[in-house]
Design goal:
The protein is of the alpha+beta class. The protein has a single domain, classed as Deoxyribonuclease I, Chain A. The chain is built from seven helices and twelve strands.
Length: 258
């Protein structure tokens, strides 16, 4: 195998996604490694034989609270090592981060907190972001080649959101969140999708509150697969798949040379 194909997808409930054709989509072989966020399920709540029958190894890190948060990875390549969480108790209790090693690459699948439910969670989000930036900076010393995929719950620039003016006070596009993204990229990360696709109107999430929003493509780009600078020369392709519709998000894709 000469390349590694990775997908990141917030499924907004794995059981709901399974009822909407998630397995049929997996059968099309969209990638070697599928990282999902917001599983809202424990491993034992899902028939994971579905995944093993397709040749996937499955790894789950669920929230302690039932029906909430959680991440999972389905991989056709057996990882060398799997690490659950980051050692930050509140984040780990919410099942937000799982890490897997493939050769010289460490893949981090993360479900960043949302601040949309109010000030308390927005405060938690800022604290989580700051802790996570320190965590990944330290991690780089041990694992210099990192891939960080997931639902970041932040649209970075005006091009990443359909209505920047109308959303300037919305969680996910607040100045402090966008500044965090600036800082993140300044500390040695690449926005893999933007490196290949400078064009506008490319989004990965659409509000479900208004049913026509997705048809009209009034979305946000809040899902990313970003890599450390030293993997830049190994990026083959990056894409967003808006036509895959088991969730209010859609999958994002990265292909890396091994």
């Amino acid at each position: 195998m000469s390349s590694l194909r990775i997908i990141s997808y917030n499924v907004n409930g794995i059981r709901a996604a399974l009822n909407k054709g998630f397995m049929e989509w997996l059968k099309t072989n969209p990638a070697d490694i599928i990282c999902v966020q917001e599983t809202k399920a424990q491993k034992e709540n899902v028939d994971h034989k579905l995944f093993t029958d397709l040749g996937f190894h499955d790894f789950w890190f669920s929230a302690q609270k039932k029906g909430y948060s959680g991440v999972a990875v389905f991989s056709k390549i057996k990882p060398d090592q799997v690490e659950y969480g980051t050692g930050h108790k509140v984040s780990d209790d919410e099942g937000r981060v799982i890490q897997l090693d493939f050769g010289d690459i460490r893949l981090i699948n993360a479900y960043f907190p949302s601040g949309t439910s109010g000030e308390e969670r927005q405060g938690f989000k800022y604290k989580w972001l700051d802790e996570f930036l320190i965590y990944t900076s330290r991690l780089k010393e041990k694992y210099p080649r990192l891939v960080l995929c997931g639902d970041y719950n932040i649209a970075h620039k005006e091009i990443d959101i359909h209505d920047p003016k109308g959303n300037k006070n919305s969680s996910g596009f607040l100045p402090a969140e966008r500044q965090w993204m600036d800082k993140f990229f300044q500390t040695g990360w690449i926005d893999t999708f933007r490196g290949i696709h400078p064009e506008p109107h490319r989004y990965s999430w659409w509000s479900q509150r208004f049913p026509t929003v997705r048809q009209q493509n009034k979305g946000w780009r809040i899902d990313y697969i970003n890599t450390t600078d030293n993997l830049g020369s190994r990026i083959v392709n990056a894409e967003i798949y808006p036509d895959v519709k088991q969730s209010d998000h859609c999958p994002v894709y990265l292909e890396l040379k091994l």
